[in-house]
Design a protein that fits this description.
By secondary structure, the protein is an alpha+beta fold. The protein is built from eight helices and 16 strands. Helix 4 packs across helix 6.
Length: 369
């Protein structure tokens, strides 16, 4: 097998830098007496734009790091302690085309420009989102609602579920410890103990069911703008069957070129797609389904062949895409057209679409990605 040939060294890349064929990058890495990376290691792209700078100590990432977008602006900053992320991990949106993946643009609203995670030796403690002016926003880009006095400052507001959420993860990012949720107005709705992603104990306050029975109307109004989706979801609560979910999705996903989807059909399709996204989440988080309906549909989904489940998820994404983008066949899209591309509704829909799509490609774990 022929040894890979290094590309011509571009101007700006030091002579001591070596071409890393697997990563398709140049690397300049000072070494200690044992040949381990030690000191500031730097990487460049093939075109000499800088990729990353990271401090190492005897072969282990230890110290500050910065990754860069193709235009030279930071894409991610943070700190390693003995090879583990510790402190504030920050990702930045790029205003220009970028090859960086640190900022999951598809998952966030267009108004989100900075994403912060508080980490403790790889564990996630809390997350925050900010707009271009540095103001706190939700993950979908809306202004943060007023935080009730009893809700911890690190709790995040989830627009789709309409609840505040607080909890930590283990090093593998599985839920660990006590996770709590509160209604938008501050009523505690759940308290769950996890051990490395496995639910061990759940405590629901006496007022939780009443709070949840009142919450859907408010949060569905925020998400869809009318009560059509709420009515459809109420019917699903009365008779929780996947056939109802499939019918609502297929009406939009397989719509003919001359068929016009009215608001109620659009909202039912999006609500059904939200159910699929929630059912696809191993923890059942972030969705319109209550506990009992979620349990019933999960049991039905478990009996569905894998190929059919994958097809249903694909159809759900197609339905949301049509409702979001087709100005000729989607009445809901027409209603929101005047609001512009950055409207809260469009941000919600794009985030739902991202949850139904494939996850972004991962980067090599040898250094900050």
């Amino acid at each position: 097998m022929k040894k890979p040939v290094s590309p011509p060294r571009p101007k700006g890349v030091p002579a001591a830098a070596q071409w890393m064929e697997a990563e398709q990058e140049w690397e300049l890495a000072p070494k200690d007496a044992r040949g381990k990376k030690h000191g500031k290691v730097t990487w460049w792209r093939r075109d000499a734009t800088i990729v990353c700078e990271c401090e190492y100590a005897h072969g282990v990432a230890h110290g500050a790091f910065t990754r860069y977008h193709d235009d030279g602006k930071p894409s991610r900053t943070g700190t390693f302690v003995k090879g583990k992320m510790h402190g504030i991990d920050t990702a930045y949106r790029s205003a220009t085309p970028t090859t960086e993946l640190a900022f999951p643009a598809r998952a966030f609203g267009d108004a989100v420009w900075r994403y912060e995670i508080d980490r403790d030796m790889d564990r996630v403690l809390a997350s925050r989102w900010f707009d271009k002016r540095g103001r706190p926003v939700t993950a979908t880009g809306e202004a943060m609602p007023a935080r009730p006095a009893n809700v911890p400052t690190r709790a995040t507001f989830e627009p789709i579920s309409g609840e505040w959420l607080d909890g930590e993860t283990d090093e593998s990012l599985a839920r660990h410890g006590v996770w709590r949720t509160w209604h938008k107005q501050g009523a505690l709705t759940s308290e769950v103990l996890y051990e490395h992603g496995v639910e061990k104990r759940r405590v629901e306050p006496k007022n939780a069911e009443a709070s949840r029975s009142r919450a859907p109307a408010a949060r569905r109004s925020e998400l869809f703008g009318t009560d059509c989706a709420g009515d459809w979801l109420d019917d699903l609560d009365d008779e929780p069957t996947l056939k109802s979910v499939e019918r609502a999705i297929m009406k939009a996903a397989k719509v003919g070129p001359r068929t016009y989807l009215e608001v109620d059909d659009c909202e039912a399709a999006v609500a059904a797609a939200g159910c699929i996204a929630q059912l696809s989440d191993k923890k059942g988080a972030n969705g319109p389904l209550g506990k009992d309906t979620l349990s019933a549909l999960s049991a039905q989904l478990a009996k569905m062949p894998q190929a059919r489940r994958a097809a249903l998820t694909k159809d759900a994404a197609a339905a949301v895409k049509l409702v979001l983008e087709d100005t000729k066949r989607s009445e809901l899209c027409q209603r929101h057209e005047e609001d512009g591309a950055r409207s809260p509704w469009r941000s919600q829909m794009r985030r739902l679409l991202a949850r139904l799509g494939p996850p972004p490609a991962s980067r090599p774990a040898r250094r900050p990605a």
